[in-house]
Amino acid sequence: MKEALLKDILPKPNLQEYVRKYQVFRFVFENDTTPPPKFHTPRPEHCITFYVRDFQRFSYFGTMEIITYPKCVINGMYNMPIYRYGGQDFWAIKVVLQPAALYHLIGIHVHKLTNTFLNAEEVWGNRVRLICEQLNCSNDLNEMLNLIESFIEDLVKRSIKPLHPIDKVSQNMLLWEGNSSLACSADQSCLSVRQFIRKFEERIGINPKMFSRIIRFDRAFRMKNNQPHLDWLYIALATGYYDYQHLVKEFKAFTNLTPTAFYEFEKKSPERSFGLHEG
Q: How many CB atoms within 10 Å of residue 3?
């Protein structure tokens, strides 16, 4: 190994209604080393990712086809695992958006992006290409973040869809302070249950129940990453599962693996090669 960086950075206050955080990944492997693939599980996020150096490729779980991402990619919500393959110099800056922000920034119903992606150039044109070229020529992380943040600020100014109370409800779901009923969430959004589900799917790409399931699953495996000594029963109860078997059922649904098997597989991910993990 040569170099490793895994870092979360908060956006400017004026962007926090649209951006949750920036994630910076930098893994530089020796030329005679084959970077390990990343088994990427469903996460409650939409994101815009800039690949600064080497391209990243991916494949859907259970398929043989390997697809190369563009230099800047817009990812929808995933409810299935995928494999990702980085190069010798993997440097990515990911803009993790608030749940409904992508709907406002691109102006289309994001259920069309569930389990897939868009080339950002096809949406925002040559400006994206110029930013990618500037990022590729820079070695200064602060300079890179300033370029990206200026771009996001411009997108926010041009945002097409007005904010709605449902957007705040979807953000609050990420805090996971107990399970809120569908009727309660709809009431907080000033909508009927049927309207809430329809508008939620337009903005998030999946229904509220699936979104809540992914949030809970994501919390469970991150809790294990951060506190490996905790047993799975404790984690199951702490993250809102009925019991251990309920946790197993959900892990199999989202990873095709048991919690223990998934954790062992996760240990082989690229960041683990450098003694890091995503918390």
A: 11
CB atoms within 10 A of CB 231: 9
How many Å apart are CA 236 and CA 130, to the nearest integer? Answer: 46
Among 41, 63, 84, 83, smallest CA distance to 251 is for 41
Query: Each residue of 99-115: pLDDT tens digit?
Result: 999 999 998 889 999 99
Q: Where are the domains of the chain?
A: 3-160, 165-206, 209-271
Please tell me whether residue 49 adopts helix, strand or coil conformation. Answer: strand
How far, in Å, CA of 114 to CA of 122, rounded?
Answer: 17
3-160: CATH topology: Jelly Rolls (2.60.120)
Instruction: Give per-residue pLDDT as tens, 8-17.
Output: 999 999 999 9
SS3 81: coil
Q: Does residue 61 contact residue 80 with C-beta atoms inside 8 Å?
A: yes
Record: fold of 209-271: Arc Repressor Mutant, subunit A (1.10.10)
Assign residue 178 a region (left: φ > 0; alpha: ψ between -120 and 50; beta: otherwise).
left
pTM: 0.92
- 57: enclosing H helix or E strand: strand 57-60
Distance CA 173, CA 44 (A): 10
Which residue carries 């992606």 as its tokens?
Answer: 117
Residue with tokens 């393959």: 85
CB 44 within 8 A of CB 79: no
| pLDDT level of residue 51 (50, 70, 90 thresholds) | very high
* Paired tokens of 3: 């170099």
